[in-house]
Every structure is written in structure tokens, then in C-alpha cells.
Amino acid sequence: MDSTSYLDRYRQLSAVDQQKNQLIEELLKRVTELENSFQQEKLDHERETRFNLYYGERGGEPTPERALIRVGLLQDREPFVVVLLDGEGIIFKDEFLQQGEDGGRNAAKQLYDALHTYVTANLPNIKVPKLLTKIYLNMRVFAEMCVRSGLVSDPSGIHDFIRGFNETMSFSEIVDIGSGQNKALDKMKETLQVFLYNCHCHQIFLGCPSNTEYTNFLEDILQEGDLTGRISLVEGVAFEKELETVKNSYRIAKFPEVFRSVKLAPAWAPAWKNTHNLPSRTLLTPSPSRQFSMPPPLSRTSTNTSISGAGAPLTTLTPNEGGGSPDFQVVRSKTETSTTPAKTVERNKYGQRVDRLDFKSIPRDELNRLKKLKLCNYHFLLGECPNEENCYHDHDRKLTRQELHILSAIARMTPCRFGLECDDPECIYGHRCPQSEPGKKTCFRGDSCRFEPVAHGIDTNIVKVTKV
User: What is the DSSP code string of 225-278?
Assistant: First the structure.
């Protein structure tokens, strides 16, 4: 047999294989079509069964029993649980707050898992509910509390935490309530009323601090006794005497793996607005004003000032831009000698504090570069960090004088809580918006600027000095 014969036989066998493969493909396609048809028939059968259950085999109006069944099924459709927390009383554990965005993501996941486990164990009638979580707090004040307690050295870390939390779960968010008394309580009241009578909302978790306002709120809910079973109280920090009279009327839920069980304790002494007797502070390293040259002094319109020719230093320094305005100062022992110059605060003719800062002279690219380095402002600008060993910001980098000057400008971008009335000569926060110009009551950020409206358009002509 020659090679041509072998080739012909090979081609015949190849054709048979192709026919076989084609047959297998057609059979698989047919099986798929039959499976789809079966699933459709199954759905139609289930739909007909439910119809017969509601209306009877011959149609007509449903019986009362069937109507109740239908209502129950409708109520069980898309069930969800609402979690409303006041961030002042329910605070995440330290390890979450100290890890920035990663900590926020972990906190959101841990809270979701803890809530889901609790609902499964205590509310077995709810099948796979959605968890809608809202935490209300004043972000700026909360960031200050965390810095003041020594948890973080920079308020921007808390803002990173909140950003990470809000990005993780679709129905979980931390809401900034802004300033004002009882804003969190007001928002929780209104939100509660929206969901309290919603048949798809199977449980509402309330987390709040122990105070008279929340006690009255919970007592009002007790007036409608048939609804109290729909509400559970979340306990982070142990309830105090204010809630003793009402807490036994509610189910109590605890999530110790997520929330702190003790309050935030300030590690630094507060400095209030009237701080004329505030002790001076001796830094462990030279003051930032001695470490780098400062921008040219602002113009003056009076000779009634006792300022050295070198100009006053930039002594109001803040954490980076993401942080909030502070309500504290680092108070250290008084070690002034007779040769130590008096500390001063420069003001304009209206008595408003004036920060010496020529923001336009700072290179924008260098400003953005230093922001990304996440430097610890307390370490570099004040010489010490209250959370030195556990601080998540950089302490090791060696900065030039120019970089220190730019870092001080970055710090100025966070508002001081005491604003234009601040009397602390070594306050490390900003007192006027660095982006605004004299006479203009706004800046390019508009309503989104973190500085108050009164901190814009400040007259920068220094006419007097307050010695402290």
C-alpha cells in the first residue's frame, strides 16, 4: 500500500471524528435547551401554585386566611435592619482608628459581621437582611478628641479612617453632622421615625451616650409599648446612671470586638480661650522658628508694636490638610529664664489674630509632595509627639529648613477651634484661611472651606501685640 492510500484512510477517519464532535455539540446544546425549558416550567408551576393559594383554584377574591399569608410574605420581602449610632458614645476600638483608611475598611467589615451574627442568633425569623448603618458625629471634633487622647498624632488620620469606612459597605456610612448641640440626637430621631413603622424594617439598633437628652428620647419611645420590641440598644461604654431607668426595657446588644468599652481620656491638658496665665512651653528640640527662616513679615500700619526686627515666627502649626481644628494645647512645665523673650500674639486693629504666612510664595509641587509623605507635624514642628511609639506618621525623615517651612504652611491649613481669639502663642493651628485675601469674605473653596466665614478677608496689618 502506497502513501496515498494511507492519506485517504486518514482523511476518512478525520471526517468521522469531526462528525462525532459535531454530534456531541448538538446533544449538549439540546440538553441546555431542555434544562432552560424545565426551569421556566418550574417557575410557572410555582407561580400558579401561589396564585391558587391566594385566590383559590377558580379565582375570585382571596379568603382572609390567604390574605394574611400574602401580607406576611410581602412584609418578609427585602427585610433590613437599621443601625443608628451616636459617634460620641459609640467609638471604634483603637486599632481601627489608628490604621487610617485600612482601619476604616476593617471596622466596617467587622461591624457588618458582628451585626449579622447577632441578628442570626437573636432574630431567627429574619432571613438574610440588609444592614443599614449610619453613625452620626462631628468629624472635626471627633478627630480632635482622638488627637487629644493620644490615639493619633494627626487629625487627618481620622479623616482617612472615615473615608475607608464609607468606601467599604454600600449601606454603611459615617455622617458628618457639623457643629451644633444635639445634632446627632435630632438626626437619629428623624431617621427613627422614618423606619419605625416600616414593615420591611425588622429591627432598629440605637447606640447613644448616657445623658438626659437620650434618656428622654428613649422614655418617649416607651410610651408606645408595642414598638419597643423593635428597638435594641447598642452598649459600647457601659451605660451610666442617666439610662438606668430605661435600659431594662430594651434588648441590649454589645459588640466588644468592634467598639471601645471605655471613654476617650484626654492625655493633654486643655487650653481654653482665656489662657492669659497659660504656662510657657519648652520644647524638647529647638522651636520651629529657630530651625528655618520665615517668610517676609506682613506690613504694619502702626508703630505701637514691640516686635523684633526679625519678625514673629510662624508658631501656629497644624496637622495636614485633612484634619480638624483643635481644642487643646500641649502644656509643659514653665522653664523660662530672665533672658527668655516674652511670647507674643500679633493682632490687627480689630483685635483679630494674624498668622504670618505668605501662602502664595510656597511652591505648589513641593507642598503636594510633602503632603503625601504623611509627616508627623508634632514631631517635626513641636519637637515631640504624644504618641511617639505608636504614631503612624513619619518621624525618621530628615527635613531641610525649606521643607520645615512648607510643613508649617501645611499645618496652617487646619483651623484652630478658638479661631481669631486664640491667645496661645505656640498654638499649632491656623486662625485665618490661608487661601483668602484681605477684604474678601470667601476663598476659591467657597462653602466647602473648612475655615469659618469670619476667618476670611482678615486685615493682615498688625497694629498691636498681646504678650503671654
Answer: GGGGGGEEEEESSPP-GGGHHHHTTSEEEE-TTTB-SS----SS----S--TTP
Model confidence, pTM: 0.48
Q: Is 124 left (phi over 0), alpha (psi -120 to 50) or beta?
A: alpha
Residues making up the chain, counted from first to last? 468
Q: Which of 154, 151, 145, 102 is nearest to 390 (CA)?
A: 151
pLDDT tens per residue across all 468 residues of the chain: 677 888 888 888 888 888 888 889 899 989 988 988 898 888 888 877 766 665 554 455 555 656 555 555 566 667 889 999 998 889 999 999 999 999 999 999 999 999 989 988 887 777 767 889 999 998 888 888 888 788 888 888 899 999 999 999 888 999 998 877 788 888 998 998 888 888 888 889 999 888 888 888 888 888 876 666 788 899 888 887 778 778 888 888 999 999 998 887 755 433 333 333 333 333 333 333 333 334 443 333 333 333 333 333 333 333 343 333 333 434 444 344 445 556 778 888 888 888 777 777 888 888 888 888 888 887 888 887 877 666 777 888 888 888 888 888 888 788 877 778 888 777 777 888 887 888 787 888 777 787 888 888 888 888 877 665
Grid cell, residue 14, equals: 478525520
Q: In 348-429, where does DSSP find H-type helix? A: 364-372, 377, 401-411
Residue 105, number of CB atoms within 10 A of its CB: 20
Other CB atoms within a 10 A radius of the CB of residue 66 amount to 15
What are the start-end ranges of the E strands in 344-458?
344-347
| DSSP for 136-179, written as a single string | EE-HHHHHHHHHHTTS-S-THHHHHHHHHHHHH-TTEEEEE--S
Do the beta carbons of residue 203 and residue 83 sit within 8 Å?
no
465 forms beta bridges with: 346
| Nearest residue to 423 via CA among 467, 455, 377, 464 | 467
- What are the grid coordinates assigned to 415, written together? 483651623
Terminal alpha carbon distance of the chain: 115
Collect all residues with Cβ–Cβ distance below 8 Å to 4 and sequence separation of at least 6.
none
Strand pairing category for 464-467 and 344-347:
antiparallel
Map out the domains of the chain as residue ranges.
74-254, 268-468
User: d(Cα 468, Cα 422) in Å, to the nearest integer?
Assistant: 11
Cell of 152: 493619633
Q: Across the strands, what pairs with 80?
A: 130, 201
